Amino acid sequence: MKWSTTVREWQREHEKPNECIYCGSKGDLTIEHILPRSCGGPDIPDNAIQVCKKCNSVKVGNDSTNGLK
């Protein structure tokens, strides 16, 4: 069975709440949409993950399923 990137992100967030799911940082967290709103993603909790501002800024222009640059 192969899990999608969004399932893995959801699992990481629930295993380690209040941490960036990419780097593990516990500070300066922000919300990122898994499927960006600009691509039609809904503004609902199931489409949101916590990431630090540094990781979120690296991903500008990418959707979460592509990973970090």
Q: Would you give an account of this structure?
A:
With 69 residues, this protein is an alpha+beta fold. It has 2 helices and 2 strands; from the N terminus they run αββα. The chain has a two-stranded antiparallel ribbon with strand order 1-2. It is globular and about 30 Å long. 14% of the residues are buried.
Strand fraction band? Answer: 5-15%
What class, by secondary structure content?
Answer: alpha+beta
Number of strands: 2
Order of helices and strands: HEEH
Sheet with most strands: strand arrangement: 1-2
* End-to-end distance: 26 Å
Instruction: Detail the poorly predicted runs.
Output: 63-69
Shape: globular
Biggest beta sheet summary: 2 strands, antiparallel
Alpha plus pi helix count: 2
Helix proportion range: 10-25%
Rg from Cα: 11 Å
Mean pLDDT, all residues: 77
What would you say about this model in short?
This protein has about 70 residues and is of the alpha+beta class. The chain is built from two helices and two strands, in the order H-E-E-H.
Q: How is this fold's topology laid out?
A:
Layout: H1 5-15, E1 29-33, E2 48-52, H2 53-58
Antiparallel strand pairs: 1-2
Features:
69 residues, alpha+beta, two-stranded antiparallel sheet, 25% helix
